[in-house]
Design a protein that fits this description.
Blueprint (H helix, E strand, L loop, with lengths): L1 E2 L2 E3 L9 E4 L2 E7 L2 E5 L4 E4 L13 E7 L2 E5 L14 E6 L2 E6 L2 E3 L3 E6 L6 E8 L2 E3 L4 E6 L7 E3 L2 E3 L2 E3 L11 E4 L16 E2 L6 E2 L18
Parallel strand pairs: 1-4, 2-5, 3-6, 4-7, 5-8, 6-9, 7-10, 8-11, 9-12, 10-13, 11-14, 12-15, 13-16, 13-17, 14-18, 15-19, 18-20
Antiparallel strand pairs: 20-21
């Protein structure tokens, strides 16, 4: 268990503030705060070859709950050349992880579930009951973000509240789903409902199976 820690004002380069990588199983990460850091807040990784047995080279069977993560931004990180790309919570190749009741805000991406390794998938991730708001690029991102990356499989995004994300106004919206031609065989599935709170009444956005590079943009607040 990783519980009750406060990580802040970290200069991380190519690393992350809190990371579980490879053969890590049956874990709980709860009631932590991560803030004002220049790379990913929490990272759950697979397929990087850190386990001597490739069958166990994934963070798996964990719960990430009741954490507060904010002000995660790579814009001042020299390793990123002024770009913004860090998630508050990132699952990169992990499997069977529940992400629930977290607050993530004022970061580049709120929550990201993806795989950076071509032909490999982040899978069976449940993202539920989180408060995700005022993030720069998107509230939640998932799938293979270019043709050299992997995919997201059999994952559920349900009962989250999204508010004021894509604050950079790049057009990514609250929920940003990508599936590239190299990952179409794996089929990315996101189940409804997904809620966005704004000046209009809360509405439900239902996403089904995606096959190509696709961006979904929720209506903006006026």
């Amino acid at each position: 268990m990783i519980q009750g820690n406060n990580l802040h004002d970290l200069k991380l380069g190519n690393s992350e503030a809190m990371v579980l990588n490879g053969n890590v199983e049956i874990f709980t990460v709860t009631n932590n705060t991560v803030s004002y850091s220049d790379n990913i807040g929490m990272d759950f990784i697979g397929f990087e070859g850190v386990s001597p047995n490739s069958a166990y080279d994934q963070a798996r069977d964990g719960v990430v709950s009741d954490n507060v993560i904010y002000a995660i931004d790579t814009i001042t990180n020299p390793a990123y050349g002024g770009s913004q790309s860090a998630a508050a919570i990132y699952v990169d190749g992990g499997t069977r992880i529940v992400i629930e009741r977290n607050q993530v805000f004022m970061s580049n991406i709120g929550i990201e579930i993806a795989s950076e390794h071509q032909g490999r998938a982040t899978s069976e991730i449940t993202v539920r009951n989180n408060l995700i708001y005022y993030n720069h690029i998107a509230g939640l991102a998932m799938g293979g973000y270019d043709t050299q990356r992997g995919s997201t499989e059999n994952s559920t995004i349900v009962n989250n509240t999204f508010f004021g994300n894509d604050s950079n106004q790049d057009g990514n919206g609250e929920l940003w789903i990508n599936s590239t031609p190299s990952t179409t065989s794996s089929r990315t599935i996101s189940s409804s409902p997904i809620h966005k709170a704004g000046s209009s009444p809360i509405h439900t956005l239902k996403i089904k199976t995606m096959w190509w590079i696709t961006t979904f943009t929720s209506p903006r607040r006026n």
